[in-house]
Amino acid sequence: FGTTDIYVSLVYLTCYIASYCFELMFLCRRLGVELGKVQVYQEANRETRVQIEESVRSEDVFIIQTVSKDVNTTIMELLIMVYACRTSCARNIIGVIPYFPYSKQCKMRKRGSIVSKLLASMMCKAGLTHLITMDLHQKEIQGFFNIPVDNLRASPFLLQYIQEEIPDYRNAVIVAKSPASAKRAQSFAERLRLGIAVIHGEAQDAESDLVDGRHSPPAVKNIGAIHPSLEIPLLIPKEKPPITVVGDVGGRIAIIVDDIIDDVDSFLAAAETLKERGAYKIFVMATHGILSSDAPRLIEESAIDEVVVTNTIPHEIQKLQCPKIKTVDISMILSEAIHRIHNGESMSYLFRNIGMDD
């Protein structure tokens, strides 16, 4: 079984059962609908086959796709199901993809490619007419689509968790584990009326400028310029400074915020740095908990007290391996978005108090 589901207005289909990232049945109860009937399976040669078992002609079809560990199979399931609905004359085909896969590959890196742009083109070509997603890694990904994109926010649910589940959160400080996440940390800090701290000087990751196209091809001194009298100035190479924490975390609760937690090495290093600076409790808040490989074991053995993620991605197995991982349910905002789109209502209610920089 896979992880794709359908909600169709007026026509109630049944979907195959799988391990969902959020409580799908609870989502359907909120909407007052039933799951749709569809068969999705892989043949012996690993080809994906989709068979919709009820009419979707002139209906609004909502395809809810969660991203499993087998990302590429998940994507093919989605594309084939969208195309099947399109060829079955569905009126509108809305993809509900809480975590947009390949979202980190949204910039040109050396001689690579912008994979999220390719994926957006494939979805539009298959027949998708609208996309609902949550906390895109870069908001500019919305521009890769030529269809409407609603990029919902999980921060209200995470902020509510901080206020209700973290004792003495007024003694907390919001931490950005790198300068690149400072804007997100600032947004959390301003809404909670808390201070902010930024960790600077950690090892460069894939998001750094050192690996993007501006350093390709490499500069070579013995290659002549277009004109012998011209010499193109070379960019001074970066040198990583010692790790420093800009802001006071001594005797405070440190809350590290980010959008994705997958490879946890940078979070573990940040937690060790905060402990050395005097933080007595460390929380990690993220929207998408991919938690690949041995991330649960590393978290369990680390200085992190709790990792809080939403249920945009299935992580039941990781929670069994690591009791420190907690889940926040975001099905409420997804069901409200589906309801409003189907009834032609304004979506601005879901984006209250969200500024241009958020």
UniProtKB/TrEMBL annotation:
GO cellular component: cytoplasm; ribose phosphate diphosphokinase complex
Transmembrane regions listed in the UniProt entry: 6-27
Coiled coil stretches, renumbered: none
Pfam families xref list: Pribosyl_synth, Pribosyltran_N
Top-level division of the source organism's lineage: Eukaryota
GO aspect biological process, one term: purine nucleotide biosynthetic process
Protein name per UniProt: Phosphoribosyl pyrophosphate synthase-associated protein 2
Function: Seems to play a negative regulatory role in 5-phosphoribose 1-diphosphate synthesis.
Signal peptide start-end: none
Alphabetical UniProt keywords: Acetylation, Membrane, Nucleotide biosynthesis, Phosphoprotein, Transmembrane, Transmembrane helix
InterPro entries: Pribosyltran_N (IPR029099), PRTase-like (IPR029057), PRTase_dom (IPR000836), Rib-P_diPkinase (IPR005946)
Family designation: Belongs to the ribose-phosphate pyrophosphokinase family.
GO molecular function: ATP binding; magnesium ion binding; ribose phosphate diphosphokinase activity
